[in-house]
Amino acid sequence: MCQLKLLILDGVTAPIPCDIPCTLSLYLSVSVFLSLSLHQTLPLKVFRWSFCPLKTLPLTDHQRYELVEINLYDSQIVQLWDGKKVLEKLEHLDLSWCKQLKQTPDLSGAPNLKKLNLQGCKKLDYIHPSLTHHKRLVELDLGYCERLETLGDKLEISSLEKLDLYRCSSLRRLPEFGECMKQLSILDLEKTGIEELPPTLGKLAGVSELDLTGCYKLTSLPFPLGCFVGLKKLKLNRFVELSCVPYTTHGLESLEAWDFSDSPILVGLLCSLSRLTSLSSLKLHGEFSRSREVSTLYYDLGHLTSLADLDLGYSDFLRVPICIHALPRLTRLDLCYCYNLEVLPELPSSLRELQAKCFDSLVASNVNAAISKACCGFAESASQDREDLLQMWISRKKMPAWFKDQEKDNGISVSFPHNCPSTETIALALCFLLQGVMDLPEQPSVICNGKEFINKSVFHGDLRLKSKYLCIVCVNGYYFSNMLCQDNRFQLQFPSDYRGIRVQRSGARWVCKQDIQHFKQLASRRSSDPPELLPLFPLHSHSTWFS
């Protein structure tokens, strides 16, 4: 007897005669017809058929199936099955991007279902009651179900941990949440049509991730966000009262807020950030200064000692907080598309990535100083027994003179400095001045003598570049410890079929201990000067790039 347990028919549309004795009788005719004859002892566990042309699965009533997984991704299914089917072992059901599916099936015969993926079912407009009362379901994905208007009156899915309603644009209201739904941890309501939230949602204290961005019709909350005592990740925009942010909840690790509306609410949030001491990721995007009588704002990020990722992109800041250099764990700073930004802040030695692309407002002398200080700070703090590097992408039309060795085009020859003992050399800084348009499917890499020197993965993030940019990489001694006695030629390598960008100039500089000492002396003199209060916003707003 055939003991078939796995059947995959992904992409099958041609006539395929097949006879599997005692287990499966399968025949695909020109009209593509599937006949399943599944006995009670059938061992088939997994059935996958992406792009399945069938309108329904011909499962038999009252027949017990051993299926654990059914995957019909991007199929023509209109109704999965009719009535109740006995699928007691079914745990995973994937109907994602079945664009003709109009309703969820009766799941009362699948009591052990754990994951249901309905993402992209654009015609789905009916949820069977058996789903709203399922007891074992852990994950429910309804993202991109654009016609779905309701989930019913009440959800009582006691095991549900993740509910994804991303881009359910027709969904106007959420059902009430039963007291049994204490396992709910992740709730994604981004870009839904939600007009209000049910009060019972506020009783689910276990919610750890909440996304309310793009909920344009949601203007207020019926409960304070502080009721989510386990909240770790929060995403909001101007349409939600940001004053509801749970300042008393010290466990918040990630906060993302958008505001392009002149609302003073986000300003109030900025002034209170110091209370969120557990934040490791902070993203603030917006235009904060238009039509404001108060054009300067001073706030303190120095208390955010856990902050590792700070994203202030797409904002109209004049200057970023001067206390950034005091953040001991900050590894990434994103200032892209900040068209009013005039100066770069003093960067902490912990920084490993700086993105400052798509603006020309930066003062050249400030940029050059920031680059040299960042490289020296990295050299002092970098580990010498493992790979460690600093990368920076900065809008700039000229290469800083700090890079002593410079050559035209793509390539710089570097020899170990004769006037500096090897024990005094800590890091190597490389700089490439780029011009052109870069929208790469693959990331560039640094090569040395024709061989890969730095793995491509270090250049992650948005590389859709225009105009001129500096690509700066500073590496610790671990990278060059095996090539100190040879002449080395470094180049920036792009995918072989890409010609949209050109390296105009290449530069390099060895960072030695004497550079570190000079850097420390400057920092010491600066710390003895009176503290400088820097305006955060333009005195007179003149930006139009958000219009």
From TrEMBL:
The record's GO CC annotations read:
cytoplasm
InterPro entries the UniProt entry points to: LRR_dom_sf, LRR_domain-containing, LRR_R13L1-DRL21
List keywords of the entry alphabetically.
Leucine-rich repeat, Repeat
R13L1/DRL21-like LRR repeat region domain: which residues? Answer: 59-121
- Cite the SUPFAM superfamilies for this sequence: L domain-like
For this protein, the record's Pfam families field holds: LRR_R13L1-DRL21
Put simply, this protein is called: R13L1/DRL21-like LRR repeat region domain-containing protein
Q: What is the lineage of its organism?
A: Eukaryota, Viridiplantae, Streptophyta, Embryophyta, Tracheophyta
